[in-house]
Design goal:
By secondary structure, this protein is mainly beta. 0% of the residues lie in helices and 50% in strands.
Length: 114
């Protein structure tokens, strides 16, 4: 059974950092593009970052560009999101996604507050 599980969320002060992980099981991610999305209360789900299967090309939303870095380790079947210089507006539930199969994880909460 294909499954994506996010972890690494938590509460942090503005300016802080967190690293999210998305571990896949039941299948190999090595051939798949992957994405991070986020959704804040009352807002639509937002695409945050996209990474192609090899990890060579990455794209970011304007709101996180220069602060977030997406990466992956296909040997570990895992994708990461390194988040730095966090702002209160980054607070949301973060989801990983494989667009080709529309696989989603359950999400991990990130709260940025002083």
């Amino acid at each position: 059974q294909a499954q994506l599980v996010e972890s690494g969320g938590g509460s942090v002060q503005p300016g802080g950092s967190l690293r999210l992980s998305c571990v896949a099981s039941g299948f190999s991610i090595s051939a798949d593009d992957m994405r991070w999305y986020r959704q804040a209360p009352g807002k639509e789900r937002e695409l945050v970052a996209h990474i192609i299967s090899t990890g060579v090309r990455k794209n970011y939303s304007d709101s996180v560009k220069g602060r977030f870095i997406v990466s992956r380790d296909n040997r570990k079947n895992t994708m990461y999101l390194q988040m730095s210089s966090l702002k209160p507006e980054d607070s949301a539930v973060y989801f990983c996604n494989i667009p080709l199969y529309d696989y989603w994880g359950q999400g991990t909460q990130v709260t940025v507050s002083s």
